[in-house]
Design a protein that fits this description.
Blueprint (H helix, E strand, L loop, with lengths): L18 H8 L6 E2 L12 H19 L9 H15 L8 E4 L2 H12 L5 E6 L3 H9 L3 E8 L2 E2 L1 H11 L3 E4 L13 H14 L2 E5 L24 E6 L11 E4 L2 H12 L7 H12 L3 H24 L4 E4 L7 E6 L5 H10 L2 E2 L1 E2 L12 E5 L5 H17 L3
Parallel strand pairs: 1-12, 3-4, 3-6, 6-7, 7-8
Antiparallel strand pairs: 2-9, 4-5, 8-9, 10-11, 11-14, 13-14
The structure holds pyridoxal-5'-phosphate.
Length: 396
């Protein structure tokens, strides 16, 4: 029989793969200035420190680390995450309420595996991170988008949606959101925790950018206001140590975490022991925050340079002014189309991600996301000049 007749699972209906990953393929051209990704700068990856730690670990505990490990995770890492979570995210969590995962992407997958039946409703911010939107769709959930403003997701609308739609889960990125760079206000964090327990909705709180703050004051996590276990917190070391290590974690109440652990058994058995041990050592030696402070200095410069140039960029109507993270979200003047203009930009050597892909129902073709972490100040200057020329020439 012809392989063309292969019938794929219904869950793939209407799912075409990440548009961003498709854009990345266009960018493999020498000299391309990419504002499209969300990767840390090469200079922010602590390769030498990781090499030394890995060598020590393998010489000291190689026979254990190279063996199969527990699905529940590398025990020392679960322990070292406890003070880290208290210090950075302001909540108490016991080691057995923490599951190390293969990137926080896996935390989202496991939560959906544990909770979502086809047709269940999941509330998302509009716009939101494409990768996790795709994960939710693969579990055949119905997306219920709720708009956001300067202070993050609109909680007044959220309460109405909780009342009317009875969703199973809310997916929210509270700090330096992807793609907008916005941060959820303190009041809204408290309100979301209260609404979750009032209406029985699991909140998947995804906070990988929190440590990348360049100005303003830190805010406690939504989970720190959760007294009944409705908030499942997903963290990641991808943006502050290395995305290639694929180490993240999920903190949730024990019953939910147990279901996720069972789900993980058939996903990947466990997260790579060596990678968990590298992150554990990084935390135990107090290497993380000095490293974060160092990278924040250059990211802040990069962001401010880009913001300064955006202010003078033709065709740009408005843009967010984040206090941290990796992204700025911008809007072109009415009638302009960032999807159509992308090819012209790529042909002239600069790329961004059209904002439409981050919206549950598309639209918003005049929006686009810019990343600044992967470009030098000089590349930001040149790339923004190219955008200025193209946008100015295409003003309506
Ligand atoms: C909001 C958000 N969540 C999760 C992830 C993925 O993180 P990880 O590398 O830990 O899977 C990203 C990566 O870009 C992200 O922007």
């Amino acid at each position: 029989m012809d392989i063309q007749h292969l019938q794929f699972a219904d869950r793939f209906d209407g799912i075409s793969g990440s548009a961003i990953r498709e854009i990345f393929k266009l960018l493999a051209v020498p000299g391309m200035i990419s504002f499209a990704g969300g990767n840390p700068a090469a200079s922010a990856l602590p390769d030498k420190a990781c090499a030394e730690i890995a060598r020590e670990l393998l010489l000291d505990k190689g026979k254990t680390l190279l063996q199969y490990g527990a699905t529940e995770g590398y025990a020392p890492l679960r322990e070292s995450l406890v003070p880290y979570l208290k210090d950075r995210f302001s909540f108490d969590c016991a080691p057995d309420e923490i599951l190390p995962v293969t990137g926080s992407t896996q935390a989202m997958d496991l939560l959906c595996k544990a909770l979502i039946n086809p047709g269940d409703k999941v509330v998302i911010e509009n716009p939101t991170f494409l990768g996790n939107m795709q994960c939710i769709k693969l579990y055949q959930a119905q997306l219920v988008p709720v708009d956001s403003d300067e202070d993050g997701i609109r909680v007044d609308e959220l309460e109405e949606v909780f009342k009317k739609e009875h969703p199973k889960m809310l997916y929210v990125i509270p700090t330096f959101q992807n793609p907008t760079g916005r941060t959820l206000s303190l009041e809204r964090r408290k309100k979301i925790a209260a609404l979750a327990s009032r209406y029985g909705v699991v909140v998947a709180e995804d906070d990988p950018y929190r440590d990348l703050r360049y100005e303003g004051s830190e805010l406690p996590s939504i989970k720190s206001f959760d007294h009944e276990g409705w908030v499942a917190f997903m963290g990641s070391f991808s943006k502050v140590i290395s995305p290639g290590l694929r180490v993240g974690f999920l903190c949730a109440n024990k019953t939910l975490l147990r279901k996720c652990t069972i789900g993980k058994q058939s996903s990947d058995v466990h997260t790579a022991n060596l990678n968990q041990a590298i992150v554990d050592t990084y935390l135990r030696r107090d290497l993380l925050m000095p490293h974060v402070r160092e990278i924040c200095q250059s990211y802040a410069n990069q962001m401010n340079t880009m913001l300064g140039l955006l202010a003078k960029c033709g065709g740009v109507a408005r843009y967010t002014r984040p206090q941290g993270g990796l992204f700025i979200f911008a809007e072109l003047e009415k009638g302009m189309d960032a999807v159509k203009l992308l090819q012209t930009c790529v042909d002239s050597g600069v790329a961004y991600v059209p904002g439409t892909y981050f919206y549950a129902a598309g639209g918003h073709e005049n929006t686009f996301r810019l990343n600044f972490s992967m470009s030098t100040l000089e590349q930001i200057q040149r790339g923004m000049e190219k955008l200025n020329q193209i946008f100015t020439a295409n003003k309506q």
